[in-house]
Specification:
Distance between the termini: 32 Å
Radius of gyration: 19 Å
Mean pLDDT: 88
Length: about 350
């Protein structure tokens, strides 16, 4: 579910940018394409930063995390909508985000037991990728359910990294799940496919080319993290293409930010989009203090949950579960980096 260039790269909409993009996607011979792609990377000079795991496990907003943890029904699953029923995607994201601020395998044991007992709900490529990432984040990657889900996910992906009937948000979960599973080559193939799914302005829509909706901060921010998660997995040409896409996404985020501290989506403030955009800025090595401050301003003093435009003055479980990591200046790459240590 989704709600949701700066002056430095103003040429994003220029003739030069369009020419470079065509070159990056062309069918010229490999040697020439490689040289041109490397030239693109050096020309952009976008200063993309590496993601640090400093601060991992530190919960800067414990009352908000506690609010979310208490929303698990019997400690097992999240039911964020009305009528209340288990939502496996929301449950897994809540588990992942909480894992980054100290809610470890022991604390989330009931949720893990529920999840591993309900893998029938993990019935799409995006959910499979999310399941794998959750398993590694919470240390149950050796569970007997994990290997079959990885096998199913690999079968979902064609040789070009295309996944049938899958949206761009789900593509990112697939990439993270594959990266966590050590499937670097396949993760890179999917990331290169995602590279080609951006809009002309560098942002990402839920579904590429959908004329009914705009590019959004949550999908664009997640695409940044997906591409960054595979840095170093591909050829020099692949890495140059990712750098190119990341530069355009970075510029989209800068262009569409409101007062340089949040994003709008569908005519109102976009809390989830701001959460994902904030995580993306950290992944890009960009300042995000004002965005974190804005998110903290959405914390409800009554119960410490995060409010959304459609629930305020009450808190919203979904917006809260997507805000836990960025509220502590963390992102999904911090979790991925911890798995490598």
């Amino acid at each position: 579910m989704v709600y949701g260039w700066s002056r430095v790269a103003k040429y994003s909409s220029s003739h030069l940018d369009r020419k470079l993009e065509r070159i990056a996607m062309s069918t010229l011979n490999k040697t020439f394409r490689k040289a041109l792609a490397l030239a693109i990377a050096s020309t952009l000079l976008i200063g993309l930063g590496a993601c640090s795991s400093q601060g991992y496990g530190k919960d800067l907003n414990p009352k908000t995390s506690s609010f979310l943890f208490e929303k698990f029904k019997q400690g097992e699953y999240i039911a964020p909508y009305d009528p209340p029923r288990a939502d496996v995607g929301a449950t897994m994201e809540a588990m992942v985000q909480l894992s980054g601020v100290g809610y470890d395998r022991q604390k989330q044991s009931k949720a893990i037991d529920w999840l591993t007992s309900n893998t029938n709900l993990v019935n799409s490529p995006g959910l499979r990728g999310e399941y794998l990432f959750t398993a590694f984040a919470l240390g149950f990657e050796s569970d007997s359910t994990v290997s079959p889900i990885l096998t199913s996910l690999k079968e979902d992906i064609d040789e070009n990294g295309e996944i049938k009937d899958t949206n761009n948000f789900s593509y990112c979960w697939v990439i993270l799940g594959l990266a966590a599973s050590g499937e670097e080559k396949l993760a890179n193939t999917v990331a290169m496919n995602l590279f080609g799914k951006s809009e002309n302005n560098g942002g990402y829509k839920y579904t590429t080319g959908d004329i009914s909706g705009p590019a959004t901060a949550d999908v664009t921010g997640f695409a940044v993290m997906g591409l960054k998660a595979t840095e170093g997995f591909g050829s020099s040409e692949d890495e140059a293409a990712k750098t190119f896409a990341l530069g355009r996404a970075k510029s989209w985020l800068a262009t569409y930010a409101k007062t340089k501290n949040h994003w709008f989506g569908y005519g109102d403030v976009d809390v989830s989009g701001t959460a994902y955009g904030t995580m993306a800025l950290k992944a890009l090595g960009e300042p995000n203090d004002e965005y974190i401050k804005w998110l903290k301003g959405r914390i409800n003093p009554a119960d410490s949950g995060v409010t959304a435009p459609w629930t305020e003055p009450d808190s919203d479980t979904f917006s809260t579960l997507q805000s836990i990591l960025p509220l502590s200046d963390l992102n999904f790459l911090d979790i991925l980096n911890q798995l490598k240590n």
